[in-house]
């Protein structure tokens, strides 16, 4: 495993559900329509009906997305989840109770036969993966002809007073780097041109902007930022000190009327195997 993979596996083993804790109740909007969460948005890519349908959740985490699909009790719907964090998969197994087939593996070498799935979903994971060209080649391989990928990825956050408070508090933190050599590979996902280059082997690529807005108060801001990787690298005392300073700064913003909301941006990427 690379430094990045070891960091992600270790972090998610120690903090299973950290992503769904922040996002499972985050209402979002896309193309004028409202969705209860980013998970509900992706679940909407899976059609209803009795026809046989095999769905893979790539980097399924604690099973938040799979649980929405399993709750349909949809005849013919077969659910699969893959992740390389044992901690996340254990949480998914508890949540799903056998309603999905869970596998521990890397996305760069999927343990499935060619043309195994009608749909592949992925929530906030592809932009964290190294060798993403290989990952996308694997998705093409395991999709049936005409099969669809629907993925939610991060997008650059618009400037906001709350975001600047987080950046300033992080810069002034005395926490040391606990993962030397750690680099996140998301640069290619920052603009639509980069995304289009990555997905050149697929047909019918569509990139949709997904937006959310959180109120500016210490509790809500901490619920969002408290699970970011930079803070999960800190020791508990360091993280507690950061939280106190961050909450106080956000409270000051709110009291002075300098920030009304925290805007968040994502992208939904969909494409089809030709």
Features:
274 residues; globular; Rossmann fold; transferase; alpha/beta; EC 2.1.1.-; Methyltransf_11; nine-stranded mixed sheet
Please sum up the structure shown:
By secondary structure, this protein is an alpha/beta fold. 38% of the residues lie in helices and 24% in strands. β4 (77-83), α5 and β5 form a beta-alpha-beta unit.
Describe, in plain words, how this protein is organized in 3D.
With 274 residues, this protein is α/β, with parallel strands linked by helices. It has a single domain, classed as Rossmann fold (3-Layer(aba) Sandwich), CATH 3.40.50. Helices cover 38% and strands 24% of the residues. It has a nine-stranded mixed β-sheet, with helices on both faces. The chain is globular, with a radius of gyration of 19 Å. The mean pLDDT is 94.
Spans of at least 5 consecutive residues whose pLDDT stays below 50 are: none
**CATH superfamily membership, which one?**
Vaccinia Virus protein VP39
Would you state the CATH class? Answer: Alpha Beta
Helix/strand-derived category reads alpha/beta
Distance between the termini: 32 Å
CATH domain topology: Rossmann fold
**Contiguous helical run count:** 11
Q: For the CA atoms, what is the radius of gyration?
A: 19 Å
Strand content: 15-25%
GO biological process, one term: methylation
Enzyme class: transferase
EC number: 2.1.1.-
GO molecular function: S-adenosylmethionine-dependent methyltransferase activity
């Amino acid at each position: 495993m690379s430094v990045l993979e070891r960091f992600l596996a270790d972090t998610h083993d120690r903090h299973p559900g950290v992503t769904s804790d922040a996002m499972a109740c985050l209402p979002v909007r896309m193309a004028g329509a409202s969705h209860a969460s980013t998970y509900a948005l992706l679940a909407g890519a899976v059609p209803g009906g009795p026809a046989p349908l095999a769905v893979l959740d790539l980097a399924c985490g604690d099973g938040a997305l799979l649980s929405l699909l399993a709750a349909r009790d949809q005849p013919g719907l077969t659910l699969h989840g893959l992740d390389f964090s044992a901690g996340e998969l254990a949480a998914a197994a508890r949540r799903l109770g056998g309603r999905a087939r869970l596998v521990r593996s890397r996305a760069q070498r999927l343990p499935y036969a060619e043309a195994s799935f009608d749909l592949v979903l992925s929530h906030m994971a592809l932009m964290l993966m190294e060798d993403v060209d290989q990952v996308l080649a694997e998705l093409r391989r395991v999709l049936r002809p005409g099969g669809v990928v629907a993925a939610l990825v991060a997008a650059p956050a618009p400037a906001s007073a709350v975001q600047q408070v987080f950046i300033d508090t992080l810069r002034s933190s005395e926490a040391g780097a606990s993962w030397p050599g750690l680099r996140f590979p998301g640069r290619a996902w920052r603009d639509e041109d980069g995304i289009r280059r990555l997905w050149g082997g697929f047909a019918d690529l569509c990139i949709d902007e997904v937006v959310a807005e959180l109120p500016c108060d210490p509790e809500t801001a901490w619920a969002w930022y408290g699970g970011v990787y930079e803070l999960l690298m800190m020791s508990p005392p360091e993280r507690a000190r950061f939280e106190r300073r961050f909450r106080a700064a956000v409270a000051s913003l709110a009291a002075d009327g300098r920030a009304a909301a925290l805007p968040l941006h994502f992208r939904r990427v969909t494409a089809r195997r030709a």
